[in-house]
Amino acid sequence: MKEYRYRTFGLHNYKKIPQINEYLTEEQQFEIDVVGNVLPFKANNYVVDELIDWDNVPDDPIFTLTFPQKDMLSAAHFDKMAAALRQDLSKPERKEIANEIRLELNPHPAGQMEYNVPSIEGVKLTGIQHKYRETMLFFPNHGQTCHAYCTFCFRWPQFVGMDELKFAMRETELLVKYVDRHPEITDILFTGGDPLIMSSKRLESYLLPLIDGQVGNLQTIRLGTKSLGYWPYRFINDKDADDTLRLFEKIVKAGKHLAFMAHFNHPAEMKTEAAKEAVRRIRNTGAEIRTQSPIMRNINDDADTWATMWRDQVKHGMIPYYMFIARDTGAQHYFALPLEKIWHIFRDAYQQVSGVARTVRGPSMSAEPGKVQMLGVSEVKGEKVMTLRFLQGRNPDWVHKPFFAKYNPDAIWLDDLEPAFGEEQFFFEEQYDQFKNRKAKAATASLEPA
Ligand SMILES: *Cc1c(COP(=O)(O)O)cnc(C)c1O
Ligand code: SF4
Question: Are 133 and 249 found together in one domain?
Fold first, then answer.
């Protein structure tokens, strides 16, 4: 296994990567500069040397996953930023232009900010999102970056310093209190960014208060992470790797289920010895590893890639969990695929693997009302329809109730769909509108003087 000391690359220093000058033209480098001034860009030496196949660049999936590409911006946005760079504008002027473009890229999809932030004793818990009854998301303040950035990431606004959109929290006291007062919560999902960017000491400060017996309703602690794909040395020879593993053991011994929600977008991320070793070490602590990824054009849009990925994951003791559909934000136009095509890919892949890999659910859209699964295209009473259902809903009653949309081969997201059979609304819409009105009223009320 090759050893690395973690070294990151971004706009300011990526030209020091030897492969850049060897494999990319001046023009391609300029394109990285242009797009990288708008969307986040961070890679590291492991990704660059071990995961990217440079002979395959620019088509290489991991290159596309981590390096900005021209077509991730619309032609108009690209030209605007390119002009700014050519004019040699000052940094603040460039930033202003970048922010103008960013605001046109739907920086906050799926009502994340508006509807999901709870409060306790009048304090807004900005680091908590509680959308689905059983599972609470927690954004630890120190876990809001990653070992590299994915070009598709829907959390991109926080990585480019649109700070007013960043939500995170430092205190665990309020976190414990919140879980304690909400006995319906069984799961906490630590997310970011990537919580495994944190040192073992910091991780302890967040995790230990959750296992000391106070919050009996809490069963599962999940860590949403891409560290296995982007920096497996976190669990091998980083200086606190062993302390981190010991912390995992402690959580398991305390009787909690510790689950890694590991992002893997492509089988290339699992082929290195380091990745396999990290998986072995984590599994040895008693933690489980579940896997998830969005499906994206230009990265993993074929069935064999998914079947290979699921098979490899099972082989190494991981549990395939979710296939997501790329969100309606950032460079979505570059990654998006029609729902019908995605369903075909999912099905073709699913058919190729044995039952133990069929734990995967999807393809699923994390939309405002909930996680909506695309079940397929069928014909009902002579009408061609798309069948969908909720895997998670703002209202748990919506879950696992099939509903039907008019067949639309171009639809890429729930918003593009209309109810089938001449109906006015999908079954959940009235309740969802009521929910939104209630939230809007509450928000207005809180602005009024007391
Ligand atoms: C996906 C998601 C969860 C977790 O859902 P599971 O189906 O339990 O994995 C929780 N909260 C939000 C906001 C989510 O998007
Ligand atoms: S690792 Fe996760 S949070 Fe970080 S950039 Fe990738 S998708 Fe986004």
Answer: yes
Say if 2 falls within a structural domain: no
Q: Is the CB of 219 under 6 A from ligand 1?
A: no
Are 394 and 348 in the same domain?
A: no
Q: What is the pLDDT of residue 277?
A: 98
CB 306 within 8 A of CB 346: yes
Instruction: Kindly give the number of the ligand 1 atom that is closest to the alpha carbon of 391.
Output: 7
- Closest atom of ligand 1 relative to the 321 alpha carbon: 9
- What pLDDT is attached to residue 165? 40
Question: For residue 168, what are its two tokens?
Answer: 């995170």
Query: Which structural domain, as residue segments, surrounds residue 406?
Result: 367-450
**Ligand 1 within 6 A of 131 CB?**
yes
Residue where a domain stops, chosen among 102, 137, 166: 102
Residue 89 pLDDT > 80: yes
